[in-house]
Design goal:
Blueprint (H helix, E strand, L loop, with lengths): L6 H10 L36 H6 L2 H37 L6 H19 L3 H7 L2 H17 L1 E15 L8 E15 L4 H10 L2 E12 L5 E9 L9
Antiparallel strand pairs: 1-2, 2-3, 3-4
Helix pairs in contact: 1-6, 4-5, 5-6
């Protein structure tokens, strides 16, 4: 499936998409076995700003004041980011604390949804993703797929296997949270690169296990749709209080 995108729509998608796009639809692991890409992390370099007070004295006050305010504002944003990250981690830990078996009907429908989402993701199939995802989440993933199309790459998921499903506490608005444990060989294949290059990318990727929380809802036609996928990663800073 190929569709021409307007320049305005393409520009908007590029603005919405994260700087580094992680491989899977869930955004857990990077392709190529090395985790080099990331769906939900921003890779921005930062440098400390040191400047000479004598030079600062010669600058217009409006410029120096703006720089001081920007520095203070940046520190405030950093503090807010850390606080929000800790809050979300606590909420996730509370959510994972209550796990139950999925009802058979839900388990069967979700397993079908899971494999369909991953299959359409690897094929850059926007039409099928639109059918399988909620509107808001589809728009987010659409921008990621468009980035893949521009780079002429496909996210391959070899040996994808669903290991277990556990139901968590339900979210608002009939949302169902499901803890997914699965494994796959995750890497990128490029249409504009040689078969040797793509084979090396495949050979260097290992089959790895991952966990995600899929938030799903039944639509009006009783079709199960994905509305959010949240990575479950080991906490490396739980000892920081």
């Amino acid at each position: 499936m190929k569709k021409w995108l307007s320049f305005g729509g393409l520009f908007l998608c590029l603005l919405m998409a994260p700087i580094n796009v992680q491989a899977r639809a869930g955004g857990n692991y990077g392709g190529g076995g090395g985790g080099s890409d990331s769906t939900s992390t921003w890779n921005r370099s930062s440098s400390d700003e040191y400047y000479d007070d004598r030079r600062e004295f010669d600058r217009p006050r409006i410029i120096t004041g703006w720089r001081h305010n920007a520095t203070g504002g940046g520190f405030g944003l950093l503090v807010a980011f850390i606080a929000i990250k800790r809050l979300l981690r606590r909420r996730r830990q509370n959510l994972l604390a209550n796990q139950t078996d999925l009802p058979p009907t839900l388990a069967a429908a979700f397993e079908t949804l899971f494999y369909e989402v991953e299959a359409t993701w690897t094929g850059n199939d926007l039409t099928s993703l639109h059918r399988l995802m909620g509107p808001g989440y589809y728009q987010y993933q659409r921008c990621i797929i468009i980035g893949f199309m521009i780079q002429r790459k496909f996210n391959e998921l070899d040996s994808l296997h669903l290991i277990s499903l556990r139901q968590l506490d339900n979210g608002p608005g009939r949302a169902i949270n499901i803890l997914v444990t699965a494994q796959a060989r995750d890497y990128f294949r490029y249409a504009n690169k040689s078969a040797t290059f793509n084979q090396q990318a495949k050979d260097s990727a290992y089959i790895e296990r991952f966990q995600e929380i899929w938030t799903v809802k039944w639509d009006a036609q009783h079709q199960l749709r994905c509305h959010q996928i949240t990575a479950v990663q080991p906490d490396t800073d739980d000892n920081v209080r």
